[in-house]
TrEMBL record:
Listed InterPro entries: DNA_ligase_ATP-dep_cent (IPR012310), DNA_ligase_ATP-dep_CS (IPR016059), LigD_pol_dom (IPR014145), NHEJ_ligase_prk (IPR014143), NHEJ_LigD (IPR052171)
Protein name: Bifunctional non-homologous end joining protein LigD
GO biological process: DNA recombination; DNA repair
Source organism: Terribacillus halophilus
Family to which this protein belongs: In the C-terminal section; belongs to the ATP-dependent DNA ligase family. In the N-terminal section; belongs to the LigD polymerase family.
Lineage: superkingdom: Bacteria
Any Pfam family matching the protein: DNA_ligase_A_M
Occurrences of domain ATP-dependent DNA ligase family profile (ranges): 115-200
Example of a GO MF term: ATP binding
Length: 594
């Protein structure tokens, strides 16, 4: 059957009859599961089954636990997750074009797709379209939650009743937008309804319109690069009011110079264009916002477009963007702020509701720095008005970064709690070239923790060592219990390899051995949060790792402000399942030891 399609609208409807969901950026797909087959098809009926084998395999493995629901049909969005609320459409498109079964298999294993399920069309052979939406979603949630096995290839898309907060979260994650749905709506094919509306999370850039295509009515847009030359960034056609379009078209016809099918003008006419991104001389889903007669062509720069596409909070006025923060690595303030904006969705979950310690370098890392644990008196009103320094949201994080905050350190418990949310072990090599000692220690710990059925995560310190984390369910362990366990692990490592590892706090007594700093884990102590930059000349970052990366080829200089954003895009975040692991962690082995 044809799927129900949301209708574009500039703003979301409000009222008690509406609920709101994340609009994921991917391929609309329908999953059909019968006793004999599993099939994935696009909204246009194209078979996607062979392109996304990880979805099919997962469903086949789940049939025994969802047997009462078979046959069933799920409506959803197929994505390659970029973060919790967004997919990477470019990576998904690349997968969709693949033909080689081997290449598809390797890509599926390295960067698996996920079906974000938001509606239930058939359940136990019964059509569901006549049921109200909230009833269908409740049945869908029960179906999805009956699945076993992690990581899950199918996830339930929950709904929200407060659109403003949801849209704010989507903006943080730079997602596509939200969908407003009438809670009582039935499922209707196509767009013949007034029940589903999509609201886009537009990025708005100001560009110069330099050409008009007489054949397809598209306007060509350009921006001035660093040398002042105008370069193409894409084309735009839709969104302009008819009268405005007619005036603009007439201007090009009267003044444009003909070249093939184009009418070309020198850079002068500026317009604000909404889009979802820009790359490879293309704008993603461009839509005219309005003409901008007051804008000067020379001000329509690639640099400004990069800033606009990043969606920095309007409450923070960015300043002195050319200032060099890392002289040796040639990292200026703008690049640093763009880095922080990219990793914010991954950093903030480890910072929210914690008393932070920040290291500030207002004149760059080679100049003087200072520690800050309290809210500055001159902080704007949106910074939490508490004695302890807190960083609960994007605007606060960007404000501190704009004021020279380089390192962000967090304790292991949340405000108001005396229980740690994770166990952490700092593996501190004696020198920069002694990382192999930390690698060996981390892998030994991983073997033991696997045997204890404890899920552990690993990251670089961003300095010279590694830091191992074990997420804990809330209020299950005291600091004393967790500390006893951490000390036991450290002493066991030293006992087995006294020539390699030590728990000796005095540096002069370590004798080139790796220091297992279990003491750094405790109430009042802190460690760098994932993805924080460090005060190191090469611009290194405290970077989450996949366990298979913790080997002899590991080097700290591979993880910098320059490299980490693209690393996340290509590989995803190794800490993506951190909260999932927290909630499923089995602590029996810890309780047995302590």
């Amino acid at each position: 059957m044809q799927v129900m399609k949301p209708i574009y609208q500039d703003t979301y409807p409000v009222g008690k009859e509406w609920i709101y969901e994340v609009k994921y950026d991917g391929f609309r797909a329908v999953l059909n599961v019968t006793k004999d087959s599993v099939m994935l098809t696009s909204k246009n009926g194209i078979d996607l089954t062979t392109q996304f084998p990880e979805i099919i395999t997962y469903c086949e493995q789940q049939k025994h636990v969802v047997e009462p629901h078979i046959p069933f049909s799920i409506d959803g969005e197929l994505i390659v997750p970029k973060n919790a609320l967004s997919g990477d459409f470019g990576l998904l498109q690349t997968r969709g074009r693949m033909k080689s079964t081997d290449r598809i298999g390797m890509t599926a294993a390295a960067r698996p797709a996920v079906l974000m399920a938001f509606d239930l069309l058939i359940d136990a052979g019964k059509k569901q379209e006549k049921r109200r939406l909230t009833s269908r979603k409740q049945a869908l949630q029960e179906l999805i939650h009956s699945f076993e096995g992690h990581p899950a290839a199918i996830k339930y898309v929950d709904y929200h009743e407060e659109p403003g907060a949801l849209l704010e979260s989507v903006i943080l994650h730079q997602g596509e937008g939200i969908i407003a749905k009438r809670a009582s709506s039935t499922y209707k094919a196509g767009k013949q309804h007034h029940d589903w509306y999509k609201i886009k999370n537009w990025r708005t850039i100001t560009a110069v319109l330099t050409a008009y295509d007489k054949e397809n009515d598209y306007f060509h847009a350009q921006l001035a690069d660093e040398s002042g030359h105008f370069v193409p960034i894409g084309k735009c056609k839709h969104g302009m009011e008819e009268a405005e379009r007619n005036t603009l078209t007439a201007f090009f016809r009267e003044n444009g110079k003909s070249a093939d099918n184009l009418l070309i003008l020198p850079p002068a006419v500026c317009a604000k264009i909404n889009c979802l991104g820009q790359a490879d001389e293309e704008l993603r889903e461009p839509r005219f916002h309005r003409l901008s007669p007051s804008a000067a062509a020379d001000d329509c720069t690639t640099k400004q477009a990069v800033i606009d596409l990043a969606q920095f909070p309007e409450t923070v006025e960015l300043s002195k963007l050319d200032k060099l923060y890392w002289q040796k690595a040639q990292i200026d303030k703008l690049r640093y702020l763009l880095y922080i904006r990219t990793v914010a969705p991954f950093m903030l979950p480890h910072m929210i509701n914690r008393e932070m310690t920040i290291i500030r370098c207002p004149d760059g890392i080679e100049a003087d720095f200072f520690y800050q644990k309290h809210r500055p008196d001159y902080a704007p009103s949106f910074i939490p008005d508490t004695k302890a320094l807190q960083c609960p949201d994007l605007q606060t994080l960007i404000w501190f970064a704009n004021h020279g905050s380089i390192e962000f350190h967090a304790p292991f418990h949340q405000i108001g709690s005396d229980s740690p949310r994770e166990i952490a072990i700092d593996l501190d090599p004696p020198a920069d070239d002694a990382l192999p000692l930390a690698i060996k220690a981390a892998n030994l710990l991983k073997v033991w923790l696997d045997q204890m059925q404890l899920t552990a995560f690993i990251k670089t310190s961003g300095s010279k060592g590694l830091q191992l984390y074990i997420p804990l369910p809330d209020n299950q362990l005291s600091y004393e219990q967790a500390g006893t366990f951490t000390e036991a692990l450290a002493r066991l490592l030293v006992q087995q390899h006294p020539d390699l590892f030590t728990i000796e706090r005095m540096k002069k007594n370590r004798h080139e051995r790796l220091y297992i700093d279990y003491v750094q884990f405790g109430k009042g102590k802190t460690l760098p949060v994932p993805y924080t930059a460090r005060i190191r000349t090469s611009g290194t970052v405290s970077t989450p790792l996949f366990w298979e990366e913790v080997n002899t080829g590991l080097t700290m200089d591979d993880f910098t402000i320059y490299t980490v954003p693209e690393r996340i895009r290509q590989k995803g975040c190794p800490f993506a399942s951190y909260e999932e692991a927290r909630n499923s962690q089995k602590l029996d082995s810890i309780f047995h030891l302590v």
